[in-house]
Amino acid sequence: MTSSSEEVLEAAVAGISRVALAIAEISTEHRAKALEAAERSYRHTVQELGYEEGPVQGWVSAVMLRLQTEVRNQESTKQNLLEALQEELFQAATEVDKNVIPIERSEEQ
Predict the structure, then answer these.
(1) Do residues 89 and 39 make contact, with C-beta atoms less than 8 angstroms apart?
(2) What is the pLDDT of residues 14-28, one digit of tens each?
């Protein structure tokens, strides 16, 4: 493995979080296609570096496992943030309701 090949593979691995974030933002119905495209891209990159199919498959499988895990983590984080925001909004609305002074109507109206 040459130094430049190592740098390319390190850059690919370093970019997994950014790729996962982008894929997590895609609708769930299109996510499988995005993951397939990422896998093809990783495979193409390693093949272009001149690696044989055995090592290529092992490396791509490991990268895809990490990518899929990261996508799930991104989804979970996003869901947790949404739930926390909903709770904050509910609490704020509850506090506003407690502080509202009802206006009594006069019988003339």
Answers:
(1) no
(2) 999 999 999 999 998
